[in-house]
Write a structure and sequence with these properties.
Keywords: ATP-binding, Nucleotide-binding, Transport. Belongs to the ABC transporter superfamily. The protein is an alpha/beta fold. It has eleven helices and 14 strands. It folds into two domains: about 210 residues, P-loop containing nucleotide triphosphate hydrolases (Rossmann fold, 3-Layer(aba) Sandwich), CATH 3.40.50; about 70 residues, Alpha-Beta Plaits, CATH 3.30.70. The strands form three sheets. Strands 6-7-8-3-9-10 form a six-stranded mixed beta sheet, with helices on both faces.
Length: about 300
C-alpha cells in the first residue's frame, strides 16, 4: 500500500505540490490525471524517492521511500522517456537489472518477451520509442514489484501493443496484488481499468475517489431551450462547459441539484435529459477546450 500524506514541494520559490494526500491500496490501480503542468510528474518523482518532499511523507507498507534502498527495490518505475545506455545491448541491460535487483525474474522476462517480441541482441539505440517502452515495462515487471509507477506507459505503442500492455497489467494486479499508479492522457483506456482517480491542477488535488462517484458529481445534460439560454445560467457555479449542436445544448454540470434543474426549467425548455458522460468528456469540460463557455482559467474543485 502506498500512502501519500500532506506532501508539498517547492522549486525556485514556486509551489509545485500543495498538501497532496491519497492512498493506493494493494491490488488496485489509481489514475493520476490533470492538464500539462498540473504537477503529476513532480508528484511521481517524489513518490519514487527521486525528490524529497519539503513537507509531508510518502510510505510503502508504512516504510519511508526516500533514501531507503529496501523500499525502492520494491518499486517499479516506467518514466515517460526511457534513458538506458544507448550502446548497451538489451541482454546487457537485463544482466544489469539482475545485478541491481535481487528478485529479478528472468523466466518472467522470457514469458513477457514472448508477447512483446524484443530482440535481446539489439542495442538500445536501435530500438524505436515504442520498443524502448516495451522493454522498460518488462524490466520493471520482472523485478517483481509491490508498487508500479507508470508515466504515460502507452506512449509510442501501437494499438496491438497497447492491448497487450493492458492485459499484462491487469493480470499483474490480479495475480500479485500490485499497487499501481498511472499518469496518462489516454483516458479511454484509463476509464476501463482504473479503480480510483486522482485529479490534479496546479499542484493540488481537486478530486480523489472512484469513477462512478465522479460521474455522479459531474453530469452531462442535453437541453433544448425555447429561446437562448440566459447568461446567468451559463455562468452559474454548477456549469463546467457548454456546447451546441443544432438546437441542442450540451451542458456539463458539477454537483447538480434539483434546485438547479428547476432553475433550468424556469427559463423555458422543451427537453432536458441526462446522457452518458465519459472520463475524457469530464476532463475536457473541467479543464477547458469544449465549447464557447469552457472554463480554462480557474482551478475547479469537485
Amino acid at each position: 500500500m502506498i500512502e501519500i500524506c500532506n506532501v508539498s514541494k517547492a522549486i525556485d520559490d514556486s509551489d509545485i505540490l500543495k498538501d497532496v494526500s491519497f492512498t493506493v491500496n494493494k491490488g488496485s490501480i489509481t489514475a493520476l490525471i490533470g492538464p500539462n503542468g498540473a504537477g503529476k510528474t513532480s508528484l511521481i518523482k517524489t513518490i519514487t524517492g527521486i525528490w524529497l518532499p519539503d513537507k509531508g511523507n510518502i510510505t510503502v507498507d508504512k516504510k519511508p521511500v526516500y533514501e531507503n534502498p529496501e523500499v525502492k527495490a520494491k518499486i517499479g518505475y516506467v518514466p515517460d522517456s526511457n534513458h538506458y545506455y544507448d550502446s548497451f545491448k538489451v541482454k546487457e541491460i537485463i544482466n544489469m537489472y539482475k545485478y541491481l535487483y535481487k528478485d529479478f525474474n528472468l523466466k518472467r522476462f522470457e514469458e513477457l518477451n514472448s508477447i512483446f517480441q524484443i530482440s535481446i541482441s539489439k542495442r538500445i539505440r536501435e530500438l524505436s520509442k515504442g520498443n524502448k517502452t516495451r522493454l522498460s515495462i518488462m524490466l520493471n515487471l520482472c523485478i517483481m514489484p509491490q508498487v508500479l509507477i507508470l508515466d504515460e506507459p502507452t506512449s509510442g505503442l501501437d494499438p496491438v501493443a497497447k492491448k497487450q500492455f493492458w492485459d499484462v497489467l491487469i493480470d499483474e494486479v490480479a495475480s500479485r496484488q500490485t499497487s499501481v499508479i498511472i499518469s496518462s492522457h489516454n483516458l479511454v483506456d484509463i476509464e476501463k481499468v482504473c479503480d480510483s482517480i486522482v485529479l490534479m491542477d496546479r499542484g493540488s488535488i481537486t478530486y480523489k475517489g472512484d469513477l462512478d462517484d465522479l460521474k455522479r458529481r459531474v453530469k452531462k445534460l442535453q437541453i433544448v431551450f425555447i429561446g437562448e439560454p440566459p447568461e446567468a445560467l451559463i455562468k452559474s457555479k454548477e456549469v463546467c462547459s457548454v456546447s451546441k449542436i443544432g438546437s441542442i445544448y450540451y451542458i456539463t454540470v458539477k454537483d447538480s441539484s434539483k434546485a438547479f434543474e428547476e432553475q433550468v426549467r424556469s427559463f423555458g425548455i422543451t427537453l432536458m435529459e441526462e446522457i452518458d458522460i465519459t472520463l475524457e468528456e469530464i476532463f475536457v469540460s473541467i479543464y477547458g477546450g469544449e465549447g464557447t463557455y469552457a472554463i480554462s482559467e480557474q482551478s475547479i474543485t469537485i
